Amino acid sequence: MTQIEKLYARLVKNRAAMRFADFERILKSFGFTLDRINGSHHIYKHPTVPRRLSIQPRGGQAKPYQIDQFLDMVEEFGLEMKK
To answer: Contact 50/37 with Cβ under 8 angstroms?
Structure first.
């Protein structure tokens, strides 16, 4: 299991705690790309998802509700981690 796969497994298991930088790595591994940054908001897009994902750090951590939004997108659109 690669490091990014371990991070994703930890994210799924514990939705409330994830470093922001690690969360961004996971997003990129699923094919999300940074569209723009507006203040502290990092706006990500995916080629097969019709809506954007806006995330911003809180004390260096990803916000739990944004982790939930991402995991819901993965499930809803059948997204898979790129190898």
So the answer is: no
Strand-pair partners of 38: 41
**Global model pTM greater than 0.90:** yes
Does the pLDDT at position 83 exceed 80?
no
Does residue 58 belong to any structural domain of this protein? yes
Asked if residue 45 lies in contact with residue 61, where contact means CB atoms within 8 angstroms, the answer is: no
Does residue 83 lie within any of the structural domains? no
Output the six-digit token pair for 38: 């507006």
Structural domain boundaries enclosing 54: 3-77
Looking at the structure of the chain, the number of domains it has is: 1
